[in-house]
Amino acid sequence: MKIFKILLTLFILLCTFNITAEARNKKNTLDYRMEYLNLDWWNKYNDPVLTDYITTAFHNNQDLKIASLNVKQSEQAVKMAFAGQLPQVGFQGDVFRDFTSSTVRFGDVVIPDYKQSNFFLPLTMSYEVDIWGENYLKTKSVKKQHEIVKQNERASYISLTSAVASQYFNLVKFDKLIKDQEELVKIQAEIVRKEEIKYKNGLCPVTELMDEKQLLTQLKEELNVYKDKREVVARALGVLTGLREKDLNTMPRSGYETLTLLTIPEAINAEVIQYRPDYLKAQDYIEKIGIDARVAKRDFLPKFVLYGQAGFNAYSLGDIFGNHTFKSLLGFMPSIDLFTGGAKMARFRWTKLELEKAKQIYEKAILTSIQEVNDSLSAAKTREKNYNESVKRYNLENEKYTLADKKFNIGAKSNLDLMKDNERLLVADKDKVSSQINYLLSTIDIYKAVGGKDFTTINDNL
């Protein structure tokens, strides 16, 4: 009874330890994934709807779930590799019966025909003594592969959150463009109506009326294109966030006026590439292949396996735990491959070549990273300039429309001319909206290029 209580207590303690460890691992997993999500960065755009979409994608997106599952699989691979460094203990019993058998001789001793049962119930142990550290290096190599898989997961988070933000900003852009375009179509339809009246009264040629009608068809075509593009963007955003069942009209979004334009730095230190997942992956891959090369080299050395058995051996089931039935053995087995057809040498040379290739991949990752950072920064500066120019053009067009409205109020300008001035103002507004969203999209490109870091303060941390 006392032994039972002790075993029960140990079982409860082990269960409690496992539950606590699992909860701790789950919390740590969630913490690093939230760090990958980087909500503090996305809050800089001052749009809670955007951060809601990103959080929704965090919970629903299949690519993120696949990336997380790959990390969990990699963790199990590390555990399997580490298990190779430990002794292996198992049970392999042997229960058989010899029926009437032929005569057996042991030298001068002759055993005539006999029959008997045999019960052999041993625990078997084997352990490869890691004298050269080969098994340790194999585990270390798998750990490096685990780091590569984690960088793949981080890259998935950067790519997905950037894609969500880009599609959301495009959705906001098309909302505004459609609103302006509908107003343009409405004004142009009224212009056509007035031109028809003028034509009927002989105040304008038919070509002028036809030009206005042609412009109306062009504006309607452009409106249809905007609506189609908005549906495409909305569907893409729905797939990214897992909200595919939502209707376009029920998908929330803010107005483009509320979005905050981030300040672009004059330059970004080249050391910023150290945060990029592809750079870190290339670095880890070199280290992994270097370890694999050491493993391949040590594979030429002899191996030493310690083995043993301990159990009970009896010839009747009733005597299995009786006196003189305990049996044990211990052995030490050295082994070395004398001829493998050149397989080990080929593997060693292959690993060395892979190491050279890994170095080239690393060098390419550095050059590509610097190029992408510089290209994204240059493109962002250009879009910033274009946005500033579009704002100036819109302000000038707005001033012109204000003056035209004053002329109309004093009778110095016709209503038809005022509507055309209004159309030019709406076109300038569309250009300004497009330039503003393009500017926002360029900041996302910089964010991806610097490895998912806040590029507005990243130079301060280097």
Offer a concise description of the structure.
The protein is an alpha+beta fold. The protein has helices at residues 2-37, 39-42, 48-60, 62-83, 134-200, 206-241, 277-298, 343-409, 415-449; strands at residues 88-91, 94-98, 104-106, 109-111, 116-129, 303-314, 326-335.
SSE topology sketch:
Layout: H1 2-37, H2 39-42, H3 48-60, H4 62-83, E1 88-91, E2 94-98, E3 104-106, E4 109-111, E5 116-129, H5 134-200, H6 206-241, H7 277-298, E6 303-314, E7 326-335, H8 343-409, H9 415-449
Antiparallel strand pairs: 1-5, 2-5, 3-4, 5-6, 6-7
Q: Approximately how much helix is present in the residues?
A: 55-70%
Q: What oligomerization state is this entry in?
A: single chain
**CATH-defined architecture of the largest domain:** Up-down Bundle
C-alpha geometry: elongated
The tally of structural domains comes to 3
**How big is the Rg?**
38 Å
Could you please say which CATH topology of the largest domain applies here? Outer membrane efflux proteins (OEP)
Instruction: Please report the number of helical segments.
Output: 9
Strand content: 5-15%
Q: Tell me the name of the CATH class of the largest domain.
A: Mainly Alpha
**How much is the average pLDDT?**
86
Task: Work out the number of β strands.
Answer: 7
Query: End-to-end span in angstroms?
Result: 65 Å
